[in-house]
Amino acid sequence: MRKSLGLFAMLVFFTSSLYAGKIPFKVSTSQHYNQAWNYYSPEIKIVSTIDGLTVKSIIANRGNCKVAYYKGTLKNMKYGTSGGAVLRRGCELLSIRVDTNKGSWEFEVN
């Protein structure tokens, strides 16, 4: 049974932004299904809302939830392009930190 994380992350805190508080990307969460092993794991998706965005890192649960692999492009993203990370199995996603060339933002997942 596919379990949803309630999608959408809520902004809690951000640091150093060139956009005076405007986040240059959208974040959503879902469950990624691994057909080979028949299980679900959390997935974080980032969609750029500007040209030239580079995601330097995606940190889940203050680093306690490891990234299994990255998807899509995370360097020099154009408007509307997406990338993200699939996390290791057994992680309950609570927070996300995204470090970019435009600043860093932290989100709490509902």
Summing up helix and strand content along with how strands pair, one would put the structural category as: mainly beta
**Mean pLDDT across all residues, rounded?**
84
End-to-end C-alpha gap: 20 Å
The CATH topology comes to: Immunoglobulin-like
Inertia-based shape: globular
State the CATH class. Mainly Beta
What does this entry look like structurally?
The structure is a single chain. The protein is mainly β and 110 residues long. The protein has one domain (9-109): Sandwich (Immunoglobulin-like). The chain contains no helices and 8 strands. Mean pLDDT is 84; it is low at 1-19.
Provide a quick synopsis of the model.
By secondary structure, the protein is mainly beta.
